[in-house]
Design a protein that fits this description.
There is one protein chain. This protein is an alpha/beta fold. The protein contains eight helices and nine strands. It has two domains: about 170 residues, Rossmann fold (3-Layer(aba) Sandwich), CATH 3.40.50.300; about 60 residues, no CATH class. It binds adenosine-5'-triphosphate (ATP) and magnesium ion. Adenosine-5'-triphosphate binds next to strand 2 and helix 1.
Amino acid sequence: MLEIDNLTKTFTDNKGGEICALSDVSLKIEAGQFVSVIGPSGCGKSTLLRIISGLDNATKGSVRVVKNGSLNAGFVFQEYALFPWMTVLDNISLGPEIQGVAVSKRVDKALSYIERFELKGFENKYPKELSGGMKQRVAIARTLINNPSIILMDEPFGALDSQTRSMMQKFLYEIWSESKKTILFVTHNIDEAIYLSDSIVGLSKRPGKILLSLQVEMPFPRNVTEDEFNRYRTEIITFLNRENQ
Ligand SMILES: Nc1ncnc2c1ncn2[C@@H]1O[C@H](COP(=O)(O)OP(=O)(O)OP(=O)(O)O)[C@@H](O)[C@H]1O
Ligand SMILES: [Mg+2]
């Protein structure tokens, strides 16, 4: 379980001015849960993920793993952070390579991800030769192969067209339910959050505070045309309209 306690982040600019991005954010994430974070632009969503991953420090508060060892976060960004000079196979097997896993073992492992992630036939291609959805599947595979304790995803499907985006949502749901990974997911897309999440956290406009905490009780896999789906949609739209004023 991940426990985030009273996290506050204040940035100082080079003229000494302060911007408070997050204010007293507390959140518990159970192992295996899919939690989405929504909120207006600039409310501190990416900052929250960066602090959890260790890319940035909190001004106050803490991020702790309760039970079962240390925090080992994998990050998936909106812009596909793949290495352009490496093939699909090399991008996916980079983590095991850094960990010193023997070539034949890491190639076998990467090839099994390539198969599961519907990238067969593209193992020797470079990122620029892939579609947006494929690039994002490589990015997720590359993260998952490292067996992270939590996967942090910052608007991972934000750059995709709507059809590819719904395919990727379905795909991510399948991968999540097979791998039982804990996922913290930032999105501006309401349907995406409801479709994928056990719970949805809504941040206020800056400084981000948690003002909405919604358990999505619908069974998986979900259907966007259900009446119940619409009830959650209305609740979130009402919240965001209020925060975007
Ligand atoms: N390195 C930084 N230095 C100074 N200010 C920063 C830095 N990073 C973020 N901020 C500020 O902190 C606030 C929160 O930024 P953040 O990127 O976390 O927002 P966000 O919720 O992810 O927004 P969006 O939905 O547009 O991605 C913003 O006002 C931003 O300008
Ligand atoms: Mg952001």
